[in-house]
Amino acid sequence: MQWEIVIGLEVHAQLSTQSKIFSGASTAYGAPPNTQACVIDLALPGVLPVLNKGAVERAIKFGLSVGAKINSPSIFARKNYFYPDLPKGYQISQFELPVVQGGNIQIQADGEEKNIRLTRAHLEEDAGKSLHEDFHGMSGIDLNRAGTPLLEIVSEPDIRSSAEAVVYAKTLHALVRWIGICDGNMQEGSFRCDANVSVRPHGTEKLGTRCEIKNLNSFRFLEKAIDYEARRQIEILEDGGTIRQETRLYDASKDETRTMRTKEDANDYRYFPDPDLLPLEISANWIDQVQSALPELPQARRDRYMSEFALSAYDTSVLTSSRETADYFESTIKQLPAQAKLCANWIMGEISGQLNKEGLEITACPITPSQLATLLERISDGTISGKAAKTVFESMWNGELEKNVDAIIAAKGLKQISDDSAIEKLVEQVLTANEQQVADYRNGKEKAFNSLVGQIMKATQGKANPAQVNTILKKKLEG
Amino acid sequence: MFNASLKQLSIQLAEKKISSTELTTEFLQRIKQFNPEYNAFITVNEEISLAQAKVADKMLATGQAGPLTGIPIAQKDIFCARGWLTTCGSKMLSNFVSPYDAGVIERFNQAGAINIGKTNMDEFAMGSSNETSYFGIVKNPWDIAAVPGGSSGGAACAVAARLAPAATGTDTGGSIRQPAALCGISGIKPTYGLVSRYGMIAFASSLDQGGPMAKSAEDLALLLNVMIGFDPRDSTSLQRDAEDCAQDLQKPLAGLRIGLPKEYFAEGMSQDVASAIEKALVEYRRLGAQTIEVSLPNAPLSIPVYYVLAPAEASSNLSRFDGVRYGYRAPAYSDLADMYRKTRTQGFGAEVKRRILIGTYVLSHGYYDAYYIKAQKLRRLIAQDFTEAYKRCDIIMGPTTPTVAFNLGEKSGDPIQMYLSDIYTSAANLTGMPAMSIPIGFGDKNRPIGLHIMGNYFKEAQMLNIAHQYQLVTDWHLKSPV
């Protein structure tokens, strides 16, 4: 039987506020345990939550970026359960009325544009951390993270493969960073995914029983966990079994998912509106202000790059993978408007390759857009060859000659020979010295032509303009 | 001196007839002498109280004093006070010393008042007799066989027995007004949102409100002026222009329309209470007020509504007491679940557990709509009844409690009977409107009776005026059991 995989993702994006969602304690990562937990985070008797406006603003930003409805009022609710790293015995979240309702994310899947609908996005607080090592059989609790603002972004089950899930997660990851609401640092847990996975026979409508996979803290794990889980479910169904609805944990070291809790032992969270917080009212005026401060969004830029620069869907999606990359691209083409494809190729090729190799972000790129544009200008005006440009690029990257393109070209003698008469002279010399090959060519051995070009390039140490060499050589041989 | 009003004490302090240190020392002495009998205080901390008195004396000497500077105030043990054991009447917090001050405590400290001690209370403010306290029962100073009321029983007892000039209380369903009535003192629950809840250990967040308890309405006005004020740390705190609660005390009552809800003058009220209320109303008519009958058709549902909503919120509010970070933890347990189970089994008393169970039940899947949502709808209807009634009258009066103080142990085995002690008081918590109780005489076994004065939102100054005018022509509020 052919099976269809159905996936919905829940993403927890940590909002980039300085302080926590309901207290004034710092959200900075990596402090010694419990040094960033104030009386409110510790849930001492009598303390009360006060909502961080910055967290709300970021939620509005997100909602507007995905074309969602901003609910006003929205309601904070208590999700009740006991766990040592949950100090109040309940998590303040949103249940019936989330701040963001609906919305859409466009992804590029297999070269096609696909729309993933969002169900909702709601504000909530993070829990602390339980540490099970180093305490001689006991557990330690670190409440630094308790109260960190999260936006939980829930998609509809519109995703059909692990690859699509990764593209969706990456697109969302790029978006939250693009609009500046989340630093996207996955190692530090700023962007975490849970996947709801089910399978059904191809062509059927009814959704299969789903399992929720927790704790997917990298795109690779997301992909592998979904693949494993879908395979597991299909095997059970093909053996005549049934899927049990449950929460599963992905174990990266074994590349498998395993039962965390079943539906039967799931908590009754006893959600109810938090009486300590008033309904969250968001004025139209506030929404307008956030709207007008929004940057041009990735989708808009993609569309513009395609229409304005005739770039491919693939190129534009790579260039808009982050706002910084897109900004770099735009600064570069500002100086070189007719060479968008050349700029795109170099940014996606040399620049991005070198950055990856050194583990740098584009903001830390040693070559500025204007320096790159100057280099590319020298290619397009015929001063140097593409090959020579790579040599210049390397020197610039290493900071030679203050990254001055022309100085490097001069110092390395990379200037291309583009003077027709000079090339003609060279061609004649080579033809005289290689009579055998000239004869071979004239007798129909096409290969001899390439050999002659090679001789010419060798004689000029690669500096002759190859296009001109080709034209002139052909003319001489056939003339 | 122990019978002096706050105003009189303030004048004596200002005129240097007595220092705050002397005044504080004398009240500490009285507590030492009488508390073993009444058990009104859980914690007394002479060192901190006297240090505060020293600061107050400096303020008095340098002309920085306000109306409450140097005056000892008893603080209900529900308010977190830095350096003080803050137990909320529970074994669960029997070892909890607060590292921070509640909003109310801060305001009293800034006013230069002295914290004379932390008063006894029903555990987590759940009770109407002060019998659920882990720290033992409190006696009614009028009759030590009687309960003082609750949950602010220690506060009411302390003021009635003249162990403190005034006290703070909190009121979730009547916890200021009912003990005030049973102990023959005055107490007011202000409009929800006027007094900061920050640092006031939560029982039912949407109903809890702090307020003062004292001998007279005039004293209450001075105390309210200190207690009321916006607190940005409490999201339900109201931001309003400051109002002097004493500004209308002297206004004559001519033309005042007193509404008498027929539902409150129905069966259930005992004869002695009914006749005391009638006498008080005669006094009010003499002062120029007129009485009219009004109806609050949904008010009789207050108790069932209250006993769904308050436990629901409490069940969640009390989840933080888990033995992990502070407070009581069971000495022996096998694993995490066992630690939770034993800690909460041993740390909470029976009434608290009962309410956690009720609250957990009404919030649970499948019952939420039938109980919690329905109760919320009724809550709105009850508020509408009052809003309608206030179109026809300025103020509503009735009994604070259906009977005088009952005997210790009389109702402790019957929670429903106990819950009915709040039959008249809980509506004001559901609506958020202010309400107060003042002493108006004595009934059965010579135990005190309270008049319940209920007003519309933000009518505190008017209510205090109405109470004060009565107290100018009567002396029930001056009577003391000691």
Provide an overview of this structure.
The complex is a heterodimer of chains A (about 475) and B (about 475). With about 475 residues, chain A is an alpha+beta fold. Chain A contains 15 helices and 15 strands. In chain A, the strands form three sheets. In chain A, strands 1, 2, 5, 6, 7, 10, 11, 12, 13 and 14 form a ten-stranded mixed beta sheet that branches. Chain A has a three-stranded antiparallel beta sheet with strand order 4-3-15, with no helix packed on it. In chain A, strand 6 (about 105-110) and strand 7 form a beta hairpin. In chain A, helix 12 (about 420-435) crosses helix 14, helix 13 packs antiparallel against helix 14 (about 445-460) and helix 14 (about 445-460) crosses helix 15. Chain A starts with a strand and ends with a helix. With about 475 residues, chain B is α/β, with parallel strands linked by helices. Chain B has a domain at about 5-255: Amidase signature (AS) domain (Amidase signature (AS) enzymes, Alpha-Beta Complex), CATH 3.90.1300. In chain B, helix 7 (about 215-225) runs antiparallel to helix 15. Chains A and B meet through loops of A and helix 9 of B.
Structural domain tally of chain A: 3
What are the low-pLDDT stretches of chain A, counting only 5+ consecutive residues below 50? Answer: none
**Percent range of helical residues of chain A:** 25-40%
* N- and C-termini, Cα separation of chain A: 67 Å
Shape of chain B: globular
Mean pLDDT of chain B: 97
Distance between the termini of chain B: 13 Å
Beta-strand content estimate of chain A:
15-25%
CATH superfamily of the domain at 6-253 in chain B: Amidase signature (AS) domain
**Unreliable sequence segments of chain B:** none
Number of helices of chain B: 15
Reported CATH architecture of the domain at 6-253 in chain B: Alpha-Beta Complex
The succession of helices and strands of chain B, N to C, reads: HHEHEHEHEHEEHEHEHHHHEHHEEH
Q: Return the average pLDDT of chain A rounded to an integer.
A: 93
Rg measurement of chain B, Å: 21 Å
The main β sheet of chain A shows up as:
10 strands, mixed
Strand content bin of chain B: 5-15%
Radius of gyration of chain A: 30 Å
Structural class of chain A: alpha+beta
